[in-house]
């Protein structure tokens, strides 16, 4: 979502020894500016009051509206009415919604409606329909079983497991404490992201996360066993140690 400040103005100015005939002020803000979040919060304040028959959620520059009903036509009409109200609000406050970055998704357990294409419009453009939208880093799915999100967590977690393998070894490498700290800092936060939502997931999906943790535990405990074996072999008068 992008927004614009009031139209540019031209002021006469003089800076040190260099005389500038005109100083042109360009509307907008610098990317990464400290004022950007505050200005954006001021510009979107009151948007939730424009939504009447739907629910709305605002977080940073992410806006989501939704409605629950058995009648699909009623849902489409209600959403389009509220989208028009939000569009009027954005034009009044110099905000610019990007239809290319906006999408719709329908959540239902009715398999006959999985291929439904809701007709929701923004600025005259028909919004694209997706079956696996991502909101605040959480991948949603139409069946609401958290399978898509957990699959991405497992893939990302297994990639980071390679780091544990690289720094561990039977006869060399990091000790078990360093490996455990690495797992806690780099892998466990990935697996726990969004756990408040995927707690309702099936046991089959949750077992996928458990297998990643077991793989990490295996890498750490093998390192511990190797250290214990080395210390045991270094004992004096131990005949089996070469």
TrEMBL record:
Question: PROSITE patterns in the record, alphabetically?
Answer: RT_POL
- One Pfam family this sequence matches: RVT_1
List residues of the Reverse transcriptase domain.
1-140
- Which positions make up the signal peptide? none
PANTHER family in the record, alphabetically? ENDO/EXONUCLEASE/PHOSPHATASE DOMAIN-CONTAINING PROTEIN, ENDONUCLEASE_EXONUCLEASE_PHOSPHATASE DOMAIN-CONTAINING PROTEIN
Q: What is this protein called?
A: Reverse transcriptase domain-containing protein
Organism listed in the record: Araneus ventricosus (Orbweaver spider)
Q: What does UniProt list as this organism's lineage? A: Eukaryota, Metazoa, Ecdysozoa, Arthropoda, Chelicerata
